[in-house]
Amino acid sequence: MEKTGYHMTPEQFREEGKKVIDWIADYYENIEKYPVLSQVKPGEIKASLPTNPPQKGESLDEMMNDVTNKIMPGITHWQSPNFYAYFPANTSFPAILGDLVSSGFGVQGMIWATSPAATELETKVLDWLVGMMGMPEKFKSTSTGGGVIQDTASTSALTAIITARERVTKFESNKKGNPQKLVAYISTQTHSSIEKAVKIAGIGTDNLRLIDVDDKFAMRTDLLKKQIEKDKKEEYTPFFICAALGTTSSNAIDPIKEIGEICKTENCWFHIDAAMSGTAMLCPEFRHFQNGVELADSYCFNPHKWMFTNFDCDVFWVANREELINTFSILPEYLRNKATESGEVFDYRDWHIQLGRRFRSLKLWFVIRHYGVEGLQHHIREHVSLAKKFTGWVNQTKDFEIFVDPPLNLVCFRHKSSDDFNMKLMNAVNETGKAYFTHTKLNGKIVLRMSIGQTNTKEKHIKTTWDLIQETAEKLHLK
Amino acid sequence: MEKTGYHMTPEQFREEGKKVIDWIADYYENIEKYPVLSQVKPGEIKASLPTNPPQKGESLDEMMNDVTNKIMPGITHWQSPNFYAYFPANTSFPAILGDLVSSGFGVQGMIWATSPAATELETKVLDWLVGMMGMPEKFKSTSTGGGVIQDTASTSALTAIITARERVTKFESNKKGNPQKLVAYISTQTHSSIEKAVKIAGIGTDNLRLIDVDDKFAMRTDLLKKQIEKDKKEEYTPFFICAALGTTSSNAIDPIKEIGEICKTENCWFHIDAAMSGTAMLCPEFRHFQNGVELADSYCFNPHKWMFTNFDCDVFWVANREELINTFSILPEYLRNKATESGEVFDYRDWHIQLGRRFRSLKLWFVIRHYGVEGLQHHIREHVSLAKKFTGWVNQTKDFEIFVDPPLNLVCFRHKSSDDFNMKLMNAVNETGKAYFTHTKLNGKIVLRMSIGQTNTKEKHIKTTWDLIQETAEKLHLK
What is the pTM of this model? Predict the structure, then answer.
């Protein structure tokens, strides 16, 4: 204790760290033995933990025992190959190791000077991704734009809305507050994060227009145009339109090109939210879905969803970084430094809401290098083809139906009986612990969602799950 | 390749993971050999990396070699015991391991149901901290309030401002947009994050009042009262006041109790930003600095600064969680579930801006359990006592002066000659690579900052650095 006080020494870390590595490897080898959806009741985990913190330090063995015995029952296993709920939140071993190196460095990458590598690796990797996804050159740092890692697509949406608000007010709303007659447009199916961002930015949900969708749940641009005309007549100023490249509910894909053209005509900021489905753009055969992307002012997708990179890692690109930086830049004296003043570097604190930032590009770099472009493409194609298979199986039955044809990896289906039956079926399957999937509501009907994209999901998993769903439906019918 | 495609297997992870653990231990054993402030030029790291991503996967050895050879030169070593710049951004081995377990689980804790343990451990650990820091009971989840981990103090400030805006507008500004006559108050020394938050929230910097400070750089409440009177006469509505428990520039401590009382009288939201110095509240002898904390509506501090917990980990407490939840809650169909509808659980997505969230309480839990309350207190006291020692040394010289008496661990000093000389001195010391410290401006003068709080800083480090500063000053004088 003399030399280091209460700190763990590097020697102890070598020993304890290797135990944790083994613990994680064991976890993945046994992950299918756990119930996918945690079976605990509200308050159960909390009640198992002591009311007061320890006065004296405890050993890592004690902590890891508690992780195994007290925490594990409260884990819903997002990394289980039988996890089909919500959306994938994938990790992978290379991502875990990249993130571990980042924890080890413990650098604070708020500005270039506080760790040049953290800034420059991020810029480079996000430029790589522009090419990997067939995105327009303007999103590269070597052109007028550039990318930055944000925590979530919610934050990217907020960042886009604030920048759009600034652009349309000629950089006055940061100073005077938000003017009252700005309006934003999304479809009725767009993710709730836009609504949240509109509230935060002081725009107000009264000024958010929800445009109705077609039979594939994609935004109807004829109605969008009409609404804009109406708003302009009433002296509102349209300033922001968000298109979804894959809605959360049903993976619907808005008509990017048509919306982009309306944005140009109406002088609106065009943001594309490709949170999950953006990853599919790694494969050229899926890029037709983002036809028109060259019209976007900003674009985000989450490698922390489908691209095997652990949370948090949302990629946000802008076509014109000057607007973004002018919106978020603040330079107090204690952050002044030569590199910043030279203008030769990016200070990423000026690209987002937070000041502090972790070295997140390391894990993304590790993932891209481990898999290579071909490995990433392989696994994305595999998931899309599994979703097609699952769709085929559903179509072969008489009791179930596909609700909307899946463009990629999300299958929306339902039992042909009542909403109530579908909810019962879902809960019954989830309670077995063998699989976990969730529901949504489309056209007023309960629809079941199989989100097929977990890192380790293979055909045998979706086959077993499909059998389980069918068997459970039969049992429930007999009751 | 047959069984797992391109994925790394658990067996490979065991092997590679242990190598990474050793690599990190080696890094800490050798950390004092690296120049603390990275010496690279803008663009140097980027130029060392390939223009295109690899088509085929690469080995982890190749990546780790690149980390050592290409990334390391661009690292500014925040974990070096000779890092005295900005503020500490500490990690510790228990934190790294807790975060590693979190990466392994890879759970998305957006709502209770998506991993009950992630929510309940967070609630429990943040309740522990209320007791550990002598905070009022109302901040506990078992009372009317509760805590949530945010990424940064910037985000906590924004969250507080939005909730305050909603409260004062009776929950109308989320709907109608921000009304134009709300005003917020901070001191001239308050962190730039409040200015940024005021912009984002659509309040506008014209509506942010900067109150002048006393000779210790703390907010003058007589001037605060005067400004509020003036604003009310002009039909502005005061709605938010932020007090700093330790400003970034000089660690000045605003008069918490007096400001709190003004907030009550004027019906303003009272937010306390204790980003770095909050950690000192673990020691009862420093709690007089937050006398009046029971008047606060919200409070934040960053275990990722001084409490040995790696980024990101900001703790944000509110006294009344209903107001917070009413401000941020959104419930789309695809997130509906039984636990949420029962009202028995917290869904932390409703406590902040983002939807997605990482299992961050694990690392905080590991830190508290590893050190125990007494270990944490030991190291905080050690840092404060080192700052006192350093202050004593400065006071003994005739060429240097203490600019403001340090309340805790940040020493603000300067060479008695010109501003220009102080900047030259700082740059010359930093360029040696042996230590890294930064500057600020106080009363129009350049002041040097020694932030003493890095996990591994001991007396020998500050002694060597002080000798280096003095020798460098002498050499510069002789030129």
Answer: 0.97
Count contacts between A and B (CB, < 8 Å): 526
Residue A379 lies in a domain: yes
Q: Do B449 and A204 touch (CB under 8 A)?
A: no
Say whether both A348 and A382 belong to one domain: no
Spatial CA neighbour of A433 closest among A38, A40, A90, A68: A38
Residue A187: helix, strand or coil by DSSP? strand
DSSP H helices in A307-418: 321-328, 338-342, 361-396
A190, A294: one domain = yes
Per residue in A201-240, pLDDT (tens digit) is 999 999 999 999 999 999 999 999 999 999 999 999 999 9
The answer on A321 and A435 residing in a single domain is no
Closest partner residue to A128 among B53, B180, B334, by Cβ? B53
Interchain pair B7, A195: CB under 8 A: no
Decide: B150 and B316 in contact? Cβ < 8 Å. yes
Q: What is the DSSP string of A420-468?
A: HHHHHHHHHHHHHTS-B-EEEEETTEEEEEEE---TT--HHHHHHHHHH
Q: Is B99 on the interface with A (CB under 8 A)?
A: yes
Q: Do A49 and B124 touch (CB under 8 A)?
A: yes
- The answer to whether residue B10 neighbours chain A at the CB level (below 8 Å) is yes
Inter-chain residue contact A13 with B93, CB threshold 8 Å: yes
Does residue B282 lie within any of the structural domains? yes
Q: Which domain holds residue B238?
A: 107-358
Question: Using an 8 Å Cβ cutoff, are B402 and B394 in contact?
Answer: yes
Position A264, amino acid: K
CB contact under 8 A, A24 and B38: no
